[in-house]
Design brief:
Blueprint (H helix, E strand, L loop, with lengths): L1 E7 L2 E6 L10 E10 L2 H9 L1 E2 L2 E2 L9 E9 L11 E4 L2 E2 L5 H4 L10 E2 L13 E5 L3 E3 L6 H4 L2 H17 L4 E5 L3 H13 L3 E5 L3 H9 L4 E3 L6 H8 L4 E6 L4 H10 E9 L12 H7 L2 E4 L7 H9 L9 E6 L3 H9 L7 E5 L2
Parallel strand pairs: 12-13, 12-15, 13-14, 15-16, 16-17, 18-19
Antiparallel strand pairs: 1-2, 3-6, 3-10, 3-19, 4-5, 6-7, 7-11, 8-9
Helix pairs in contact: 4-5, 4-10
């Protein structure tokens, strides 16, 4: 079978590999359909690491995926060959204190698709996963759309935390890339809230506006803190930081009202970030750092099934596996008004 392999910084190529086989009775063999290029994939591609997770070459990345079941293990009864599924990329141990407490997303023993030092990724024609990681798709959801369930589930997890905190009517999303737009989509599906969005790329702000943002602004052209304060003088209830930048983290603290909540969704490209502790303390800001998703897949599938979330504005490019290098370079350079790029594997 073919798979895409990182061979160095900004280097990815196709290689031939042995097709995996089912070795555990509870596993399934998956024929991968589509894989989304995630921000974490780009960190591995451009920098070769995310924090302490350092790539050892050669390595296959990719985790936002949909697939068709090719075969099932002997103990698998609820799935069958030919079924179309979304693949949850995190295999938690289910026995540690975090898993037993219902927080599988921070399982210290997790094995994650395409994470350095863990599992080989989904940019391959076939992979094997536990049956419990496979979620059948409703008939009105395509395999292409299903590749967005993973980032949408992260967004749902982030927004669900906001729901638990308070009734929030004024929300800012800093960063209008794929994950920021996913957060906007979920907020729109679950809340009546005015959403203010920022980005340095105007075409992404247009996408945000078309998806329901009440206001958009480019920090290279306007003072976004001042402009949002004019519209919302009481300041913002919740800020979702989706850019992974020190600049947007600083903006968030100034935008938030006293007692507000900062939800960090973006992955910074640096090892340390900083906060104005005086401002953080005086406002008594709550910080919630999102780690992937937790029990959010089924709610997202239901929202997609009911048509409450539309993926059409997110997917801008679909390239075949043999153009994997071109796809990664497209995303890295923000070319051709790219938002979300998928790799069509099979």
């Amino acid at each position: 079978m073919r798979k895409a392999v990182l061979t160095g910084i900004n280097q990815i190529e196709l290689q031939q590999s042995v097709q995996p086989k089912i070795e555990k009775d509870g596993d399934v063999l998956l024929k991968i359909s589509h894989v989304g290029i995630c921000g974490s994939d780009m960190h591995y591609y451009k920098e070769g690491k995310i924090g302490v997770q350092v790539v050892r070459y050669p390595f296959t990345i990719g985790h936002e995926c949909s697939a068709t079941i090719a075969a099932v293990g002997k103990q698998v009864k609820h799935l069958k060959a030919g079924q179309q599924v979304f693949v949850e990329p995190a295999i938690s141990c289910q026995t540690c204190p975090q898993c037993l407490a219902g927080r599988e997303n921070i399982c210290p023993n997790v094995q994650f698709l395409g994470a350095a030092g863990q599992l080989s990724g989904a940019l391959a024609e076939y992979i094997v996963m536990p049956a419990r990681n496979c979620f059948p798709l409703p008939s009105n959801l395509t395999l292409q759309d299903a590749a967005l369930i993973e980032p949408l589930s992260i967004a749902w997890h982030a927004v669900h935390y906001m729901q638990k905190r308070e009734e929030s009517r004024d929300v800012a999303i800093l960063g209008s890339g794929p994950i920021g737009l996913c957060v906007l989509s979920v907020v729109g599906a679950l809340h009546r809230a005015s959403v203010y969005m920022t980005d340095k790329l105007d075409y992404r702000l247009s996408a945000a506006k078309n998806t329901g943002a009440a206001w958009t602004g480019n920090p290279l052209k306007v003072n976004v803190e001042v402009e949002i304060a004019k519209i919302c003088p009481g300041q913002i209830d919740v800020v979702f930081e989706c850019a992974g930048e020190q600049e947007t983290l600083d903006q968030a603290l100034h935008m938030l009202k006293p007692g507000g909540t900062l939800v960090i969704v973006g992955i910074p490209g640096v090892d340390r970030i900083f906060f104005d502790i005086d401002l953080l303390r005086r406002k008594e800001i709550t910080i919630f750092n999102v780690r992937r998703q937790n029990k959010a897949v089924e709610p997202v599938i239901e929202l997609l099934k009911e048509g409450k979330i539309d993926t059409g504005h997110l997917i801008t490019h679909v390239l075949p596996l043999e153009k994997c290098r071109q796809a990664f370079d497209l995303v890295a350079a923000y070319q051709d008004e790219v938002i979300k790029t998928l790799i069509s594997v099979n």
